[in-house]
Amino acid sequence: ADDFTTGYMQSKAMVSSDGTVFWPPPAKLRSSCKIDITYFPFDDQMCKMKFGSWIYDGFQVDVTNRSADVDLTNYVYSGEWDLLNIKVIRNEVRYTCCKEHYPDVTFTIVIRRRTLYYLFNIIFPCLWLTILSLLGFWLPPDSGEKITLGITVLLAFSVFMLLIAENMPATSEFVPLIGKLITTPFLLFLLLQVLLHILTLLV
Question: Which residues cross the membrane (predicted)?
Fold first, then answer.
């Protein structure tokens, strides 16, 4: 995550007569999230943001949520993600070393990737390239267009692999199905081309 000190803006804290302090600082917060890209780009992601004190216990600083719901009046809709759900839960953590409890408020955010961009720029072209690779087997072996089509399809598959790699987070925990969809025809097409070339030389 970025340096949290750069995201805050100047704001005043409201102190009540009972000692309650309400401080609503406008801030831009960035947090890391574990991403499951198995079904990219048809994936849902769940991220959690936990707010609490690392130093003071619950008797000194009590962190509470004012409401179980989140006000989305000023929410700005994203062109890449749809906000499905936000859940707010207050937790109290106790450690074996201390008798005090440490409260925190955890926001669970569920988002879904919008797929229209990826359908027209990745999925549909990938399907067309797969069809073109299959059509290459119907061309006569001694035709010059067969070699040209095969090389063009191989180069196009390589470009699409680079395009997909740029749009996905770098993680080795999950293998996206779309990567398998592109890599498998790529390898099969290359293997069949080599086998057909060997058979034509033998015949």
Answer: 116-141, 147-165, 177-199
Is 68 inside a domain boundary? yes
Give, in order, the Cα–Cα distances in Å from 129 to each of 41, 82, 160, 182.
18, 30, 10, 9
Which ranges of 51-121 does DSSP label H, i.e. alpha helix? 116-118
Mark whether 98 and 165 lie in a shared domain. Answer: no
Distance between CA atoms of 112 and 133, rounded to whole angstroms? 32
Name the band, by pLDDT with cuts 50, 70 and 90, for residue 109. Answer: very high
Single pTM value for the model: 0.68
* Neighbour-count burial of 133, counting CB atoms closer than 10 A to its CB (0-12 exposed, 13-18 middle, 19+ buried): buried
CA dist 36 and 59 (Å) reads 38
